[in-house]
Amino acid sequence: MEIIHSDKLITVLRRGLNLIDERLTDHGVKVMLVLKDMLKADGCRDARIQKNMAILALLHDIGAYRKEEIDDLVQFEVGNIWQHSIYGYLFIREFTPLKEWAEVILYHHADCHITADLPETVRYYAQMLHTADRVVVWHDEVRQPEAELEKHFCRKRDIVFSSESIDAWQKCQKTGTYSKLDDLSCLENALNCCLFDDTEANAYLAMLIHAIDFRSRDTVTHTIGVMEIGQHLARRMDFSEEICEQIHYGAMLHDLGKIGTPVSILESPGRLSPQEMEIMRHHVVLSGQILDGCIDETIARIALRHHEKLNGSGYPQSLAKEDLTLPERLLAIADIASALCMSRSYKEPFSKERCLSILWEMCQKGELDSAITAALEKNFDEIMAQADAACIPLRDNYSQIRAEYETLLHRFQLLPR
Length: 417
Known about the structure:
The chain is mainly α. The protein is built from 22 helices and no strands.
């Protein structure tokens, strides 16, 4: 089953990245445009390199998700360059087809003297990305004349920025690249080189989902937990294979909008305030904005209705029993079961007895489907064992990434700026 058409993926990525912080809206697309023009000006005609660098430009800040990191990024003289660079590097390396290009992300804010001993390809493209990124920040945040940027680059030549990258940018100035950053049609055109095959599309979509779950130790296995509980429960209820797949993919996408939810709320150790709860609940609306027109409508509805209740007390649409299909009702139960039976920032995993007690209490209130809850109770041990087994590799991967992140952060923070 095709979850998302390859020509729609770039739209989903763009929309998702734009929700991280309003100050970064289309930042990656603008960097992509500048970098594309710089590479062309420097003689690059290799379509594969152009595509790979365009994707890296779009995703180069994928490791930045805390407000204080983004506060740094939108300053022209970046403060802490390593936190989001390291995390983004590990993400690109682990979850995308661009593993061999990942080091470009690691060094995309490094001064040229730090990159001098790197392999030539890494050094060259990291510096090109570094320069393109600062051009966009100058345009969007500094907002001083382009001539002042030229003076800055001249002062920092071979100190912060390589001569090659500055020369490439100066060639772009003559062709009007800077003015294109104010032209929405130019930004749209810059995305045209990012054409994905189906395998790539699924890989980058999975990467975006991991980028959300991996923000916190307590959410790292939530999506896969919902996917596993949902599909195994559906199979035990003898749903068709097509419907099982729809539930699987609906579960994969159900929390996509949390990319726009502040980490401070996702990791809150206590009860959320009414205002915080409203922000948390808004993730479903954001998911709808990201997915609108890009995926199969049945899968989208399954994903976007996982917080609706049969008695109309759910959100965001207050739908009722007659509005909700069995797959939509099932995913709502799978989502709750995953949340109850796995650790979160505010609680330890609940026991089987307590989990089922809560589900049945919700059924008695008219919120959940009792037939689906009965099927979960009947198969609870097997389903949860299968879900837990599926989560183990992801937990291990998260632990490995966090350990490597800490090691690299310690090493790079010792380097002179």
